[in-house]
Design brief:
5-stranded mixed sheet, 14 strands, globular, 6-stranded mixed sheet, single chain
């Protein structure tokens, strides 16, 4: 039977067969985790039959897997519109809403499914789990309203009250001193052997990093000497063994080997605790030669969904997870290298009027908002065409080469470095060389097959050199092991 499309025309049997052929090819790419190709072939099927809810729902899931949450949401909405009785479309829309931290909207979709399938235990389970998240977040907001502005050390128990068990043989901070290079070397080996840092020292690092970050500006100026080397790394996402590989290839951080890690230290990968304590430890050891930028995953919504909160709770406690939320609020949002190169996690802005001085004035002690300068620093992405477009992620904006050029001219800069996106070679040079992406998590989530990269700069010329590397083996612990169970159910 011929299918009818929106303009009143009907599809021929040949067109229906061709659309199904593209869908089946897309499904094969999806099974192989080649999501970009899957999206391409689902799109071809949609071009032929733009009213087929299955095609939109399938493409929505492929977009979710590549973290294009905005596109995923648009596809799910189209699927619901094409066939309001197709319940999988509501699951896809719920997943997209959850990925964007919009849990109440996700709950509405689960409610639709559970009402239409009152005897479906799986549908009921998803509704109940999502409802728990909504209630928990409402409770957390309620008790956080009048929270006094205190440091972690002032808010939580003293370190003296935490005893060290006799059988603990791991790294120690004697007399509660700050970290040393020897401690950091022991810590990385301890973590490499899949052992846990004692909670007393974990708390000590968190207390110290909290006190330090509070004193930092939202934009940090970095001066690189003419003969100095400086390394910029992108997303790590809990891939601890690949982090170790960077240090093995490029040398440990030191006063003569400074680093900047450009956000998204945690989530997805299941060694996020090991990553963050290693990075925080080096920040304390070399505060003026080791730098950390906030990413969009250094936020409570992302952490609750993509694993960091679950991992911290499993390895330590929910109290420590709350501590990380506070610490992340004080991470700097961007760095200015030699007054020439701006480094941020996401990208540029929906306004042409933003200046470096505006970035210095951003109030960062909060969860990322859904719009404005702070949001865009963490979430925006470049696009090949001029102008701006709505974000493919559903947050921030997409900006073209002309936007980059105008921003650089206005602020007397040479180029920008950002992260935030998986790239096959670990990096990408766009916008006539003026917008560089670096991504340092190779074979992201053990599925993407991409290489990792970092950028080396010389202080005099500031010309980027790219070091590319493959993923290294890690213990048999799957990515997303600690992610919210509901996310795994619908993804």
């Amino acid at each position: 039977m011929a299918a009818e499309i929106e303009n009143g025309k009907t599809l021929s049997p040949e067109q229906i067969a061709e659309a199904e052929k593209y869908k089946n090819e897309a499904n094969e790419f999806f099974k192989k985790k080649v999501y970009d190709k899957a999206i391409e072939f689902y799109s071809k099927a949609i071009e032929i039959d733009p009213t087929n809810a299955v095609y939109y729902a399938n493409r929505s899931l492929a977009n979710l897997r590549t973290e294009l949450f905005g596109y995923a949401l648009n596809d799910a909405v189209s699927a619901v519109k094409s066939d309001p009785s197709y319940l999988k479309a509501y699951y896809r829309r719920a997943a997209a809403h959850m990925s964007l931290g919009k849990f109440k909207l996700a709950l509405s979709d689960f409610e639709v499914v559970s009402k239409r399938r009152p005897n479906d235990a799986d549908a009921k389970k998803k509704f109940v789990e999502c409802n728990k998240i909504v209630k928990k977040m409402a409770f957390e907001r309620a008790i956080a309203v009048d929270r006094p502005e205190k440091t972690l050390a002032e808010m939580y128990q003293s370190l003296e009250s935490i005893s060290i068990e006799d059988d603990y043989s791991g790294p120690k901070l004697e007399n509660e001193e700050t970290v040393t290079l020897e401690f950091m070397k022991e810590l990385m080996q301890w973590y490499k052997d899949q052992k846990k840092l004692h909670k007393k020292y974990a708390y000590k690092i968190l207390y110290d990093i909290d006190a330090y970050l509070r004193k930092q500006p939202s934009l940090v100026d970095i001066a690189i000497p003419d003969d100095g080397k400086f390394t910029v790394c992108g997303d790590i996402h809990g891939q601890f063994y690949d982090l170790l590989n960077i240090f093995e290839k490029n040398g440990l951080p030191s006063e003569t080997n400074p680093y900047l890690f450009n956000g998204d230290f945690v989530d997805r990968g299941s060694f996020s605790v090991e990553c963050i304590f290693t990075l925080f430890g080096f920040k304390l050891l070399f505060p003026n030669h080791f730098y950390l930028s906030r990413g969009n995953h250094e936020s409570i919504n992302m952490n609750q969904m993509y694993g960091f909160t679950g991992e911290v709770t499993a390895k330590y406690s929910s109290t420590m997870a709350d501590m990380f939320t506070q610490v992340y609020n004080f991470l700097p949002l961007c760095h200015l290298l030699n007054n020439k190169v701006l480094v941020m996690h996401g990208g540029l802005f929906s306004s042409d009027e933003v200046t470096i001085d505006d970035l210095r004035k951003v109030e960062r002690n909060r969860q990322p908002p859904e719009e404005g300068i702070m949001c865009e620093l963490l979430w925006s992405d470049p696009q090949p065409q001029n102008g701006r477009s709505p974000s493919k992620r559903g947050v921030g904006c997409q900006f073209g080469p002309d936007v980059t050029e105008n921003f650089l001219k206005k602020n007397n800069l040479e180029y920008v470095i950002r992260s935030h996106e998986v790239k096959d070679m670990g990096y990408e040079v766009a916008h006539n060389g003026k917008c560089i992406t670096v991504f340092s998590a190779p074979n992201y989530c053990d599925t993407m097959g991409n290489k990792g990269a970092y950028i080396i700069l010389n202080g005099k010329e500031m010309k980027p050199q790219y070091e590319v590397y493959e993923a290294v083996p890690h213990p048999n612990v799957k990515p997303m092991m600690y992610a919210n169970s509901l996310m795994n159910l619908i993804m």
